[in-house]
Design brief:
The complex is a heterodimer of chains A (about 290) and B (about 250).
Chain A lengths: L2 H11 L1 H26 L3 H22 L3 H25 L4 H22 L3 H9 L7 H30 L1 H7 L3 H22 L7 H10 L6 H26 L3 H19 L5 H5 L9
Helix pairs in contact in A: 1-2, 2-3, 2-7, 2-9, 2-10, 2-11, 3-4, 3-5, 3-9, 4-5, 4-9, 7-8, 7-9, 10-11, 10-12, 11-12
Chain B lengths: L10 E10 L2 E11 L4 E5 L6 H9 L6 E5 L8 E4 L13 H6 L3 H4 L7 H13 L15 H15 L3 E5 L7 H16 L3 E5 L3 H7 L2 E5 L3 E6 H4 L2 H8 L13 H5 L1
Parallel strand pairs in B: 3-7, 3-8, 5-6, 6-7
Antiparallel strand pairs in B: 1-2, 1-4, 8-9
The chains are: A mainly alpha (about 290), B alpha/beta (about 250).
């Protein structure tokens, strides 16, 4: 097989591969920076919890309208936002920490979701909701992915200062501005939005993979925030490309293939990341400077 | 710098009690922090010093009494918490951290102008951190970080500045540099209230002292407030909360 056959031909020949690539690239561009912020706020697992929380909403949409994009999107958004807001409010008004509040709500939500899906529909449908169908993205799904990605980047840019300060020094932010609380909720809203967009392509459970794996990889490539964003988006984009190609050539499902590719890139980053890769530690220490 | 900040109103404490779950951490404080005052708050651990600052800055509501800030808004008070709850592993450099002191002028969206950048650089230079602008905060020593936080305080341009143990675990050179900055704030008629443990520093640099031991032991000129018998009295304080303690007798009398 020539490199052209391996890397380019699938996208030239098949429309559905091009759509899958465009969709998953759009997803990476929006989700990866969100993942970086989640990681820096020590909320890496919150994304996972939210992904589970979205399930019952999508399931209600699925029960009402079958495999319909708008119905499942609206349902997923509603469930995700409800869990995020409830957990956020509970954290700010009670003794519970955010991780505990989220854990409680997402478990409830997940159980509800699985119950709802099993009430109607075959297991194939359930698999579709859980694992997505990146190879079957229609125009609407692509517009949704691109729209969410654009909205995410614009919102992050607008809230950047408040978000960063809420991570570094929340006490200071509270002393100069009231924007901390609203910023947190808008950010959680973005997390939900990206996960909902992601489950069209990767399914509810794996959509968090294209959010957190690139972010965790990025920590090994740069010690600066701007560098982390670039690295995370790059890892997400490469994972999309390699995942789709791997899926095309070996026949494994595309959603898991993309997340597996992201996982492989994560392992590579741990070992060879330019900033904190483990391999560099094995090299003999370079002599330190005088000052 | 070197300009004069319009004198803020005094902060008046009227029989103020502050605490947690009905237990006073410090009770029945009465006094006035005059505009432009340079006040040290001294006392043993658990005397209610940090609690008092939280009350002044408005994050803790008094259990009793009143804190009257006059025309002063809570947001005009700059507050440096004890060993700031700062995430030092977050990837942000000194320049960006210090520049957040301009928040009140630039807000959530405003960009930094060229002039602002010069102001930030000047503030960093004034605490002796020139050359550290692009260093990540995680690589700073405790003293260097404290210098950076003082630079941010200076940029906040606040009429009232509250410092909670600003010199804990800081070497003598850094302390004297930062005290110079405090003296400059005073010359600009800003009000400065600092929680301190080192009595030498207090005697040297702070004209007024409040000696706390969960109540007001003394409040006045430093030489008066820190007399040996007063210090001895403060040391005899009961530290633990007592769940069966009767309702405070002073309340009954009132």
């Amino acid at each position: 097989m020539t490199p052209y056959d391996a890397l380019v031909a699938p996208f030239v020949e098949f429309d559905f591969m091009r759509r899958a690539l465009v969709g998953s690239l759009a997803l990476s561009v929006g989700s990866a920076p969100i993942g970086v912020f989640l990681m820096l706020r020590r909320m890496s697992l919150a994304g996972d919890a939210m992904a589970h929380a979205i399930l019952p909403g999508a399931a209600v949409g699925f029960l009402v309208a079958g495999l319909s994009l708008p119905a499942m999107t609206i349902g997923g958004l509603a469930a995700g936002v409800a869990v995020a807001v409830l957990a956020g409010l509970l954290t700010r008004t009670s003794v519970l920490k955010e991780d505990a509040a989220l854990a409680a709500f997402y478990l409830l939500s997940l159980a509800l979701g699985v119950t709802l899906v099993s009430l109607k529909g075959s297991n194939v449908d359930l698999l579709n909701v859980l694992f997505g169908s990146v190879l079957a993205l229609d125009d609407d799904a692509l517009f949704l992915l691109a729209g969410v990605s654009s909205l995410t980047l614009l919102t992050l840019a607008a809230l950047y200062r408040s978000l960063v300060l809420e991570c570094v020094d929340p006490g200071f932010l509270a002393s100069v501005s009231r924007s901390g609380g609203p910023t947190h909720f808008v950010f959680l809203g973005l997390v939900v939005l990206n996960l909902v967009a992601g489950f069209q392509a990767l399914g509810t459970l794996l959509s968090v993979g294209i959010m957190m794996l690139p972010a965790a990889s990025a920590a090994f490539w740069s010690a600066r925030l701007s560098g982390m964003f670039v690295a995370a988006i790059a890892v997400g984009a490469l994972a999309s490309l390699f995942g789709l190609l791997g899926s095309y050539h070996t026949g494994v499902p595309s959603g898991p293939a993309i997340v597996l590719a992201a996982g492989a890139l994560y392992l590579v980053s741990i070992a060879f990341g330019a900033s904190a890769g483990l391999v560099w530690r094995l090299l003999p220490a370079r002599r330190h400077r005088a000052a | 710098m070197g300009r004069v900040v319009s004198a803020a109103s005094a902060i008046r404490l009227d029989d103020v009690t502050l605490g947690y779950d009905r237990h006073p951490a410090v009770h029945h404080l009465t006094g006035e922090i005059a505009p432009g005052a340079l006040l040290a708050v001294v006392g043993p651990n658990g005397a209610g010093k940090s609690t008092l600052l939280k009350g002044l800055v408005g994050t803790l509501k008094p259990l009793g009494g009143r804190i009257d800030r006059g025309a002063l808004k809570v947001r005009e008070i700059a507050y440096l918490p004890q060993a700031a709850a700062l995430d030092r592993s977050f990837p942000i450099d000194v320049f960006d951290l210090v520049s957040t002191g301009l928040w009140r002028r630039r807000g959530l969206f405003g960009g930094l102008s060229k002039g602002d950048r010069a102001t930030v650089a000047e503030a960093i230079a004034s605490v002796g951190l020139s050359g550290f602008e692009r260093r990540q905060i995680g690589t700073l020593s405790g003293g260097q970080l404290q210098r950076a936080l003082f630079a941010r305080l200076a940029l906040q341009d606040a009429a009232v500045i509250l410092l909670d143990e600003p010199f804990a675990a800081i070497d003598a050179k850094t302390v004297s540099d930062l005290l110079e900055l405090v003296a400059r704030w005073r010359a600009e008629t800003r009000t400065v209230v600092a929680v301190l443990h080192d009595l030498e520093t207090v005697r040297r640099a702070f004209p007024e002292t409040l000696l706390l031991a969960r109540r007001q032991v003394a409040w006045g000129p430093t030489s008066e407030a820190l007399r040996p018998e007063r210090l001895l009295e403060a040391r005899g304080m009961q530290e633990a909360f007592d769940d069966h303690a009767p309702v405070c007798a002073v309340d009954h009398a009132a």
